[in-house]
Amino acid sequence: MFAVSSSGRPIPPGRPTDVLAEAHRVLGDLPERGIGADAALARVTTVLADWGVDLASPFAAAHLQPPPLAVAVAADALASAGNASLDTYDSGPAAIAVERWVVAALARLAGFDADADGVFTPGGTLSNLTALLLARDAAAARLGLDVRSEGVAALPDPVVFCSELAHFSVARACAALGIGEHAVRPVSVDSHRRMRPDTLASMLRAGGTPVAVVATAGTTDFGSVDPLPELAALAREHGAWLHVDAAYGFGAVFSAKLAGLVDGLALADSVTADLHKIGWQPAAASVLLVRSASLFAPLERSVAYLNPEDDRVEGYDGTLGRSLQTTRRPDAVKVAATLLALGREGLGALVDRCHELAGHAAALIAADPAFELVGGVTLTTVVFRYRPADESLADEVNARLRRALLRAGEALIGRTEVDKVTCLKLTLLNPNAREADLVALLALVREAGSTAERLVEGAA
Questions:
Q1: Which strands form 117-121's sheet, in the order they lie side by side?
Q2: Does the pTM of the predicted model rise above 0.85?
Q3: How much is the CA Rg of the chain, to the nearest whole Å?
Q4: Which end of the chain is more exposed for a tag (fewer CB within 10 A), N or C?
Q5: Right CATH number for 1-69+343-460 from 3.20.20.70, 3.40.640.10, 3.40.50.300, 3.90.1150.170?
């Protein structure tokens, strides 16, 4: 079902400088005369196979980076071979049709009605940026302003509210859009790591021009989902755009068991969904959905050499007015093939399997005195830490053990910080992994932790 089987180690052993240098050595210098297609492909294949990451390994569990489905990889190759672009009709009519089909299917899964629209982007960061651009311009329009002609400075005291656990791309988007990172107002979370509506209500009443409320459906570390219906009601009350960053959590809609976690998506003005996370697509496959096609109005463009107005009237239009990009590859093709091949039920089974693996990993960690389980399982991530005898050494030991596993090429696990404490993380997106693999993976972590503990104690 997946594109490749595991070759063994999840990441090449060695220090990063040595690994990168060896890969560069094999590539060699740029030849004056080419070495031919077969030799070139063989050389690149060697580099990728010997010094790349192996996401099919059950010990690759660091990031929201799944092994891709074979059908998606094959469809992506077809898309590349056609080299269509989606900016204009005459650059890729079939690709435009496929993207519109996929967008409509995903919008229905999210609960939107027939007015909804969307566009593929290179990743959740750009999906969030585009959503906040639309939100910024909508806030200006409510005040009778046009930030495109008057400049962002005309928008009085713009503010954007998001969970304190929101993705960093929210702040980055605000910086890029000219309203500044200082406009971001982090909202505290509850014991389940969900944005607190009562705190948000107080902050909304404090003043400023509310550009957007950004809810998170699937925080990167814990998979926690903000209370979408309550946040939607507050956003409407204060005239703010509601954007849901569901880059991680959108995949729950495929599962009959987990879909309830993201109830309320359809109450949003816009939603980010990354199918190169829970969706098992080759990167990139991010989608920005909006509740109405009319919300894309700020991006409308008619350019003489691409989509002149009289051509558009006759139907010869593309997606230039939905995207910040011009040339845009048909990433929807691989998603269409996947949806057709597996259907909602097939993808849902993959989601459920990864959720079950996360639950099993959490149970193993909770039962092992060498570890501390830091948070429960919502989607497919498990946050924990190794517990040295001397608690004061915990941060350094956990950091060292992860690097030791990387250097040995034995295991690829994540690292994060919770309440200023260094923690480890398993991100389980390989449905082919077995419970026995989790036992073996945690044994490697335990052994690396014990070694790191001895080294840190000896250096103290």
A1: 117-121, 286-290, 270-274, 241-246, 209-216, 158-163, 184-187
A2: yes
A3: 24
A4: C
A5: 3.90.1150.170
